[in-house]
């Protein structure tokens, strides 16, 4: 690289010289790349020994039906209002 900065143009490398230099550098890079040993990754995730990792179906329908039938839940639902949106504002940059 320092040769390219020489004040005398005759001492600077030609484009062909640079191409050859880059080819050598690339060849050395790939030969070294193949020799680099990558360490094996260690397992970071540790499962709790007492936990259960089997998928299973939960059946809450009976409990949910009882809650929905109760008078407390139906009264609380009567007081709920849906928020109304009067104006829609466009997202900046979407138009």
Overview of this structure, please?
- With 95 residues, the chain is mostly helical.
- The protein has a domain at 2-35.
- It has 3 helices and no strands.
- The two termini are 49 Å apart.
- Mean pLDDT is 72; it is low at 84-88.
- This is Serine-threonine/tyrosine-protein kinase catalytic domain-containing protein.
Annotate the secondary structure layout.
Layout (H helix, E strand, L loop, with lengths): L14 H21 L25 H9 L1 H8 L17
Classify the beta-strand content into a percent band.
Answer: under 5%
Spatial shape:
elongated
Number of helices: 3
> Mean pLDDT, as a whole number?
72
| First and last CA, distance | 49 Å
Rg over CA atoms: 36 Å
The arrangement of helices and strands along the chain is HHH
Unreliable segments of 5+ consecutive residues = 84-88
Instruction: Describe the sheet with the most strands.
Output: none
Number of DSSP strands?
A: 0
Helix content: 40-55%
> In terms of structural class, how would the helical and strand content be classed?
mainly alpha
């Amino acid at each position: 690289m320092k040769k390219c900065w020489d004040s005398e143009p005759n001492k600077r490398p030609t484009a062909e010289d640079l191409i050859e230099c880059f080819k050598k550098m690339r060849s050395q890079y790939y030969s070294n790349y193949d020799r680099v040993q990558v360490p094996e990754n260690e397992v970071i995730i540790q499962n709790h020994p007492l936990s259960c990792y089997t998928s299973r179906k939960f059946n809450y329908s009976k409990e949910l039906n009882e809650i929905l039938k109760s008078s407390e839940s139906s009264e609380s639902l009567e007081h709920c209002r849906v928020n109304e949106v009067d104006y829609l504002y466009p997202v900046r940059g979407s138009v």
